[in-house]
Structures are given as C-alpha cells and as structure tokens.
Design a protein that fits this description.
The chain is 23% helix and 16% strand. The protein is of the alpha+beta class and 342 residues long.
C-alpha cells in the first residue's frame, strides 16, 4: 500500500506549519515548533504541546501560562495541571482564578433520549466551609446573552412565552441542590429574621436534597449564610436559573431533545415527545447520583426536587427585564425553582 507523501506518519518529525501534526509526532524547531502545535485546531495536539513546552524554560512557561486562556477547558486544565505545583511568583499570580477546578461528564441525547455523545469538561468553583466537614461548592457561571423562554416547537405553558433575549452577568451557583447536611449546618447559625427547622425533609439523608422548604425559609438560609461568610448569598432570579440550566443549549433539556430516568429523577410514567417510559422512584435521590452535569458543571438541574427563585410567578414574559435581574413586580409567589448564587 503506497503512502501519501504529504501526510506525516505517526512518528515523523514535523516542522511547524507544514502538515497536519499527529499528537505523538516529534517536533523540530524548539519554541517555534511548540507555538505551531499550540495553534492547532486539534485539542489533543495543543495539550501534547504544553508538555513539550516545559523543556524550554521561561519561554515555555510563558506559553503554558498563555494556554490558561485557551478556548478549550481541556487545554486550560492541562495548563493548570502543569503549573499548579510550581513556586514562581508570576505563576502563582496567574493561577489565582484556577486554584479550584473540577472535571465532569457532559452528555447529549437524541429525540428518544438515547445517549449520542459524552465529553469531559472542566469548571471553576470555590468551596464554602460550613463547619464540621460540610462544604458548599459554588460553581462559576460565565455571563452571556441567551434567548429565555420556550420556542414554538416545544411543548410548553403560555407563561414561558414570548421568547426574549436576556443578558446575564457572571455569578456563582451551587454545584448541587442544597443537601440536608448543608441545610442543617446553616439552620444552626444565628437567626436573622425567621426561625428555621433543621431537620424538616420527608426523605431523610445527609446527601439527599433538602425539601419541604418555604420561600421564606430559603431567603433566611441565604441571610444566615451571608452573615457567616461575609459574602452576599441570595436566591437566583428566574432568568439566572434558566441561563444556568441551559448552559448554552437551546434544546428542551440541557441533555438535548429529551430526557430519561437514567439521567434524572422524575415520574418516568410521563414521557416527553418521542421519549420512552422510565421508572418512578417515589423518593428523592442523593445529589449528583446520575454522574452527569450540564456544560457549566451543575448537577440535577432537571428532576429530583423543585427549587426556589427570587422572582414571583408571572403568567408570561411581557414586560420582563432584559438584564437578568429579579422581576418582582405584579407577580404571585409560587414554587417554581433553591439553588444559591453568590
């Protein structure tokens, strides 16, 4: 079988910029060759180039630092992993925003709910210590603009229209729904406005989500946590919650066109679209049980428990703010969505 002279073999030495570069190819040209590989559209090539850059002293370290701004979270995390144990002052400065990063799986499904892709991604977070080994993980949600509401093709309620463009500023949101252990830790803090019952959930379990919580309970939880930490914790606006749930998607679910009980805890006898019946667990499940997150790194955004937002209920989006803030005029307070943001 003849070889294409224009295609490099797996272990060929490749000069930067001449051919498509295989991941394991040796690179000639020192720093210029590394720079060429870092400009590759292939994520694996860029990651391999970062390890090569370590051989070239300060110039190589500068390239790794620059890779912290790469468009790919995989490349960013690879760069962070190479730098995190180094002692140079300039590196410590650059890593302040990358000190806490976690890896997670993101999947997509077809119209029947069958998985058709699974990728690794990474997100930044900070841990809030609630005492006695209980940690609240807050995930960074980058700001952006999105279409809020349901398009005409989706099954929906009238209160989800009209779709409208909204801009959202960056914020932090809980990685998981608030657990009973987290609730108990905060409920035992000094009272601000209202009394809190520390053990009010029907389905007991430290790592299960807290339930049977009123809106006023949730607001008091935020107030106590704010006083303890010196940060501002509050309920998200409905806009912020939907933006965080969608995580850049435009489909009915952040998984894609459908959902299954392999991905979320809900009444599986009810189906959506072309989906299939699933199971009905008749109880809550521990947070993160399904092992998949959305593209922001948030878990259990579909199913398990209802959550509170700061907004009252409105029967449509006519007159809704376009900046992601709480819409608190002329509404009725009902349960719609208890995730916390900072």
């Amino acid at each position: 079988m003849s070889e294409n002279p224009n295609e490099p073999r797996e272990y060929d030495a490749v000069l930067g910029g001449q051919n498509s570069i295989p991941v394991n190819a040796a690179v000639l040209g020192g720093i210029p060759g590394v720079k060429s590989r870092l400009a590759s559209p292939i994520v694996e090539v860029r990651i391999a180039a970062l390890s090569e850059a370590l051989k070239y002293g300060e110039a190589g370290l500068d390239l790794i630092i620059q890779a912290l701004q790469d468009e790919s979270m995989q490349v960013k995390f690879a760069a962070y992993s190479l730098l995190k144990d180094r002692d140079e002052f300039k590196i410590k400065q650059q890593l302040r925003d990358y000190r806490h990063t976690f890896e997670f799986d993101v999947i997509t499904v077809d119209s029947h709910g069958r998985e058709n892709s699974r990728t690794k991604s990474f997100a930044r977070f900070f841990p809030e210590d609630l005492g006695n080994g209980t940690i609240l993980e807050m995930v960074y949600i980058s700001g952006g603009t999105f279409m809020m509401g349901a398009p005409q093709r989706e099954s929906k309620n009238n209160n989800e229209e009209p779709p409208h463009q909204v801009s959202v500023k960056p914020f932090f949101m809980g990685k998981y729904p608030i657990t009973q252990a987290q609730w108990q830790a905060v409920a035992n803090l000094p009272k601000i406005h209202y009394d809190l019952e520390s053990n009010l959930s029907y389905f007991k379990g430290e790592n299960r989500p807290v339930e049977c919580v009123s809106w006023y309970d949730a607001v008091e939880f935020c107030a106590r946590l704010s006083q303890k930490t010196g940060k501002t914790y509050r309920l998200p606006s409905e806009t912020e919650w939907e933006y965080a749930c969608r995580a850049g998607t435009t489909t009915p679910f952040h998984f894609g066109e459908n959902i299954t009980t392999d991905l979320a805890n809900y009444e599986g006898n009810y189906i959506y679209g072309a989906g299939l019946k699933g199971i009905y667990r008749k109880e809550t499940t521990p947070v993160g049980s399904f092992g998949v997150a959305n593209a922001f790194g948030l878990y259990d955004m579909h199913g398990n428990v209802r959550e509170w937002c700061a907004d009252p209920f409105h029967d449509g989006y006519q007159g809704a703010p376009g900046d992601g803030t709480v819409w608190d005029k002329n509404g009725i307070r009902i349960i719609i969505t208890t995730l916390l943001i900072y």
